[in-house]
Design goal:
Layout lengths: L18 E5 L2 E6 L9 E6 L7 H12 L3 E5 L10 H5 L4 H5 L4 H18 L4 E7 L1 H9 L7 E5 L6 H5 L5 E8 L5 H14 L3 E10 L2 H4 L5 H21 L1
Parallel strand pairs: 3-4, 3-5, 5-6, 6-7, 7-8
Antiparallel strand pairs: 1-2, 2-4
Keywords: Hydrolase
Pfam families: DLH
GO molecular function: hydrolase activity
Length: 241
């Protein structure tokens, strides 16, 4: 389900310290930990619709600061939803997103996983997904693909996606989220129980869809929730990767 909240939010201040490099033909932002240049564990960052947007790069840097090589591939071939859409408050997401369905996104992620494992020698891969990216954490949390998953305020996913996971999954959910309302979250819980995998859902009160990556950091509730959701992800990877 497309919703205006998928293209709304706030731009975060800061200068990313990683770099964009080619990874098997995919423009990819690399955030490399300072003390671990050749890590055996890495994080595949599956972004929201804004792609190589400053907020996403800064989050990738935060994971690198925790010791994880983090790669943020361009899923949209240089055509993400423009950051200006946040300011305008209007964007035809429905017309845009039809061009970025699994037949387009799946091969990119497959290539990235192969690159991490075969070119960089990564032995275990965690994946983070925000909004749009959450669906693909579900789809790729399979043996031989992604080992551990985490996502925040998911969108465009199905219960079938959740039911098919084959690894540990942690979810950061927003109390106010028309894209992932309580009834869908409860269905996800029921599906996760049936998978037999380790799972976690943390519900953050008083915040809305996008809080984990595009929240208003001048609002102390949103700032706290964003930081706690990130800490949730790091703790999950520290334990399961």
């Amino acid at each position: 389900m497309a919703s205006p909240c998928c293209t709304s939010g706030f731009k975060h201040e800061g200068t990313p310290v990683g770099e964009i490099k080619d990874a098997n033909g995919i423009a990819t932002y690399f955030a490399t930990p300072k003390k671990n240049k050749n890590p055996e564990h890495a994080i595949l960052f599956i972004s929201d619709v804004f792609g190589h947007f400053n907020n996403n790069k800064l989050l990738a840097d935060e994971f690198a600061n925790q010791g994880y090589l983090t790669v943020l591939p361009d899923l949209f071939n240089g055509n993400p939803v423009p950051a200006e859409a946040m300011d305008a408050g209007k964007f035809d997401l429905g017309s845009w997103i039809v061009n970025y369905q699994p037949d387009v996104i799946d091969p990119i992620l497959t290539t990235m996983i192969k690159y991490l494992r075969e070119t960089l020698g990564v032995k275990r891969i965690g994946a983070v997904g925000y909004c749009f990216g959450a669906k693909y954490v579900n789809r790729f949390l399979r043996k031989g693909k992604i080992d551990v998953g985490y996502y925040a305020h998911p969108s465009f996913f199905t219960i079938e996606d959740v039911s098919a996971i084959e690894g540990p999954l942690s979810i950061a959910a927003a109390e106010i989220d028309p894209v992932s309302p309580p009834e869908l979250r409860h269905e996800s819980e029921a599906a996760l129980i049936k998978t037999g995998q380790h799972w976690q859902i943390n519900l953050y009160s008083g915040v809305s869809h996008g809080f984990g990556v595009r929240g208003d950091l001048s609002n102390l509730q949103f700032k706290w929730a964003k930081e706690q959701a990130h800490a949730q992800a790091v703790a999950w990877f520290d334990h399961h990767l």
